[in-house]
């Protein structure tokens, strides 16, 4: 599936927030969200010219998507891509593929297509803006934020049930210092619906523990 950045559908925005979370949003819709914390264990990123190819793998499942950066000129598109790579490199290595060499691209494609029970979803996006600020207003509705809150509540749920399940690598934050949670929690508290959502979760957890 291809997402185009335009006035009609909405501009695509790539955001890396201070908590280490990676977002791609279009208008009021979040298309992609995951944590970059410990992402080197499950995420591979390859840069080619003004494009990034991201390959996320968990056990025997793999999914890929491509991001192409926009700009008024080829030089500006490359600059936007380089700025994003510089920020991503703080969390995960980014491989650079030369124009004349496509071995890395083919190896990632084979990885995605060669495993059993593989989920292969390719997305192409033309991203006009890359920001490293708190999540913009376009991503602040209750429904869209639930994808963020699940990082906390899913872990809490598993703890309450005392099951030996493990979260996917993308949602494990064992090395995330508690003092760095502040900006992430403030992001949730900005939504007036957040307290009611927390209350609903607590009620459901209580039902599970009492049952």
TrEMBL record:
Regions that span the bilayer: none
Alphabetical list of InterPro entries matching this protein: REC114L (IPR029168)
Lineage top rank: taxon: Eukaryota
Protein name: Meiotic recombination protein REC114-like
The organism of origin for this protein: Opisthocomus hoazin (Hoatzin)
């Amino acid at each position: 599936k291809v997402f185009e950045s335009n006035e009609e559908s909405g501009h695509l925005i790539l955001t890396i927030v201070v908590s280490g979370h990676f977002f791609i949003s279009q208008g009021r819709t979040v298309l992609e969200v995951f944590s970059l914390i410990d992402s080197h264990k499950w995420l591979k990123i390859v840069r080619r010219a003004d494009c990034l190819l991201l390959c996320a793998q968990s056990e025997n499942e793999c999914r890929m998507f491509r991001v192409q950066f926009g700009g008024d000129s080829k030089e500006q598109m490359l600059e936007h891509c380089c700025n994003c790579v510089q920020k991503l490199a703080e969390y995960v290595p980014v491989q650079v593929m030369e124009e004349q060499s496509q071995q890395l691209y083919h190896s990632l494609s084979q990885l995605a297509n060669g495993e059993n029970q593989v989920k292969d979803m390719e997305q192409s996006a033309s991203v006009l803006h890359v920001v490293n600020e708190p999540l913009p207003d376009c991503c602040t509705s209750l429904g869209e934020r639930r994808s963020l809150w699940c990082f906390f509540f899913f872990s809490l749920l598993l703890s309450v049930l005392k099951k030996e399940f493990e979260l996917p690598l993308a949602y494990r934050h064992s090395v995330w210092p508690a003092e760095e949670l502040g900006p992430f929690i403030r992001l949730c508290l900005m939504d007036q619906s957040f307290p009611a959502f927390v209350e609903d979760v607590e009620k459901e957890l209580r039902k599970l523990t009492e049952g």
